[in-house]
Amino acid sequence: MDATSSAIKTGTSTVGITYDGGVVVGADHRATMGHFIANKSVQKLFRISDNIALTTAGLVGHAQSLSRVLAAELKLFELKRDMPMTVKGAATFTANILSGRPHYVQLLIVGVDSSGPSVYSIDSAGGSIPDTYCATGSGSPYMYGVLEDQFKTGMSKEQALSLAAKALLASAQRDAASGNGMDLAFITNETGFTQLSEEEVATLLSTI
Amino acid sequence: MQPSGRGYDHGVSTFSPDGRLYQVEYARESVKRGTTTVGLVYKDGVVLIVDKRVQSKLVITDSIEKMYQIDNHVGITTSGLVADARQLVDRARVQCQINRMTYGDNIPVSTLVKKMCDYKQSFTQYGGARPFGTALLIAGFDDEGAHLFETDPSGAYQSYNAGAIGRGKATAIDHFEDKWKKGMTQNAAIKMGLEALRESLEEDLNPDTVEIGCVDKSGYEKLDRETTLKHLGKLS
After folding, report:
1. Min CA distance, B87 vs chain A (Å)?
2. How far is B181 from chain A (nearest CA, A)?
3. For chain A, which end, N or C, has fewer CB atoms within 10 Å of the first or last residue's CB respectively?
4. Does ipTM exceed 0.90?
């Protein structure tokens, strides 16, 4: 039995969606060990700077260690250069770490910068691919069903948040390794990283 | 008695017969010739003020840095060799992030000060490199509240209610010893700091080159030019 089959994995559904003026990002709360739900309130959505967020799927240990490193490196970059790192910069930086020492994770780096909103999906060996929307984790096939049907360019923040919630709801219904509620956040150049409170998420879900 | 050929000021790690380390004292001299910077503790935090003496009006003042954000909760002003200061600033920033990565928390201000001073001290005990010609005023806010520390090239440090480094140190300290009191407002502290700085300079405060930074429980913030000018305008 290899280490990855006995360790805690996040199974997971995470999603990043660009819209007109920003990006919406979300993740579920479930961690599993095989068929056992090991935790019902895992954080998989991380603010790593004011303009960039990270979502993680895969081994919790690898994901948390990466989020710590990225938050530290982005803060140092910002202090040294007096400007935030671009989303592309953060994605490339993360990919470089993973290509040097692969982590058992699938990541989204999402954010906004002077070139607008973007979403990068990053695989465990450091492959980094930009996209307009993306889903990761074991729940991603179910989420893509919703996204392929309903994503359109030029959505509003409210439409994008609603779409992210719908996608996460779909995977919570059909993927055994996803569920137990969700974190949702949006990032714009004006407001920076803003995470929805539990009440705001509940209100949003009641409208879907 | 001089040993044949060499004095006691060549190696950094050689004591003189009366127990002094000349290279360290020379490093302190470069601080004494440096820009004056002051800091003082007030009711809710710490204020740092520096006048970046600009030698020529051709210089773009924004390109000169004497006040640095180190982390969300720490700011530093420097006096002495600027190039040396930048190395220390880089190191301080990294130490803050190392603490956050290792323990998941902001570095306590006194821990950062000790780490920086351990580093400075190592350049007074091992040969092959010279000490840093830089003193730092380190202002920070942590679980214990607001702190102001002064560090010197030997690696010695002290915590102050109000402190100053650089060529105008003595005058500024005199001013603070006379005027500083516990529980001042931020505005009062900034005014007192500016007055101390003005007294310590040979010429008038240059409104374009004065920088003010504050650290309180919401973190470090360098005041923008407009606010800085407003504070300067309140001086009589």
Report:
1. 11
2. 33
3. N
4. no
**In which band, very low, low, confident or very high, does the pLDDT at B5 lie, cut at 50, 70 and 90?**
low
Cβ–Cβ contact A97 with B under 8 A: no
Residue B122 lies in a domain: yes
Look up the domain containing B198 and give its range: 37-233
- Please list the active-site residues of A: 12
Do the domain assignments include residue B218?
yes
Burial of B146 (0-12, 13-18, 19+ CB in 10 A): buried
Please answer whether residues A85 and A52 qualify as being in contact, where contact means their C-beta atoms are separated by less than 8 angstroms: yes
Does A73 contact B at CB distance below 8 Å? yes
Q: What is the pLDDT of residue B236?
A: 77
Contact across the interface for A72 and B97, Cβ inside 8 Å: yes
Q: Is A38 on the interface with B (CB under 8 A)?
A: no
SS3 B165: strand
Residue B126: CATH number of its domain = 3.60.20.10
Closest CA to A22 of A89, A111, A109, A91: A111
Query: Which residue ranges form the domains of chain A, and what is each CATH number?
Result: 3-206 (3.60.20.10)
Instruction: Examine residue B4 and state whether it is found in any structural domain, yes or no.
Output: no
Q: What domain count does chain B have? A: 1
Nearest CB to A76 within list B68, B97, B104: B97
Helices (H), A34-108: 60-81, 87-100
How far apart are the CA of B102 and the nearest CA of chain A, in angstroms?
A: 9
Residues of A whose CB is below 8 A from B93: 76, 79-80
Q: What is the pLDDT of residue B6?
A: 65
Residue A141: the pLDDT is 96
Q: Please write the tens of the pLDDT for every residue from B68-123.
A: 999 999 999 999 999 999 999 999 999 999 999 888 899 999 999 999 999 999 99
What's the length of chain A? 208
